Amino acid sequence: MRLRCRACGKDHPEAQDICACGGPLDLEGFAPAVHREMFAGRGLWRFLPALPLAGAEPLRLGEGSTPMPRVASLGAWYKCEYLQTTGSFKDRGAAVLVTKAKQLGAQRVVEDSSGNAGAAIAAYAAAGRLPADIFVPEWATEPKMRAVQALGATVHKIPGPRRGVTEAAIRFCREQRAYFASHVFPPWFIQGTKTAAYEIAEDCGFQAPDAVVAPGAMGTIVIGLHKGFEELRRAGLVAHVPRLYLGQAQGFAPVVQTLHGAQPPGEENRIADGLLIAEPPRLRQMVDAVKGTGGDAAAIDKGHTERALAGLHRQGLLVEPSSAVAHAALERFREEGAIRKDERVVVMLSGRFK
Ligand SMILES: [Zn+2]
């Protein structure tokens, strides 16, 4: 296996965490062994043959096998990714990423995050007995920071724009000879999030749903879903890849901008605090996942997010505002007729209310 930079095309060994040019790395020369037998049992680690971790010792905290209830009054299935170890879908990615970092010989891991990825990396670093440093923007919410600290990681608050947080984390990595356990730049995290697609297919009796709606910031859900469903299709386990739809926070909607030429004007939606990413490094892949499956992306404002959140809470789904953006996007696409009422739709509920 080798890693290839998406930005400049340079090849790197597996232990590289980011290209010198600043580009994210893709995995080359790995053929996942996707087959029906791997669905026996429970949890993420039953999918080990489909993960690039041969010979690694998995870090286990109960990740994966999240429930997917159908909520009749909302007319959709809700994949409860918030019901994981640290309360978000990021546990899937962190389990695979930190397991890989340990296999690669990392002595210390560093991540930059607004909260959920930081907590997930901190938890798996604790499980793997690795010190962790989490770089966060100064507006990161207190409950999320407390979780990171409770898990034993060191929090570094960085003022200024979100990009500066990433840059500070990278500088720290180089100074400390630490591994940049980013959920964006090395390819391992997305190998973890793709397992959500496996579980959705399984829960649908291997009849892929018509559409999946996810919140979108760095794109690790939607890129993972695209990869996972494509692998299932190639293995003959599902007949088609669902249309993938994204809800983005208004003012932070680069996929909407790419697909539609502009973002709708209006106030920034900052209550979706997990989605405040204006320049995701894997934007091209996010667009490909949405456009390539016949889906779309919508920018959701604060008011709609609040109404969608209240609606989910009334159903007993205790999610955070960033998750409600996906439900709001489903409502939008139904109004527009892009998703029909009689279609089978799954909404990704990415993070727990904190
Ligand atoms: Zn590069």
Tell me what the structure shows:
This protein has helices spanning 90-103, 116-127, 142-150, 162-176, 188-193, 195-203, 220-234, 254-260, 283-292, 302-314, 321-336; strands spanning 2-5, 11-12, 25-28, 70-71, 76-80, 109-112, 132-137, 154-158, 179-180, 211-215, 243-249, 297-300, 345-349. It is 36% helix and 16% strand. It contains eleven helices and 13 strands. The mean pLDDT is 97. The chain is an alpha/beta fold. The strands form three sheets. The protein has a six-stranded mixed beta sheet with strand order 4-5-13-10-11-12. Strands 8-7-6-9 form a four-stranded parallel beta sheet, sandwiched between helices. β10, α7 (220-234) and β11 (243-249) form a beta-alpha-beta unit. It is globular. α7 (220-234) crosses α9 (283-292). The N and C termini lie far apart (39 Å). The chain has two domains: 70-88 and 189-349, Rossmann fold (3-Layer(aba) Sandwich); 90-186, 3-Layer(aba) Sandwich (Rossmann fold), CATH 3.40.50.1100. The structure holds zinc ion (ZN).
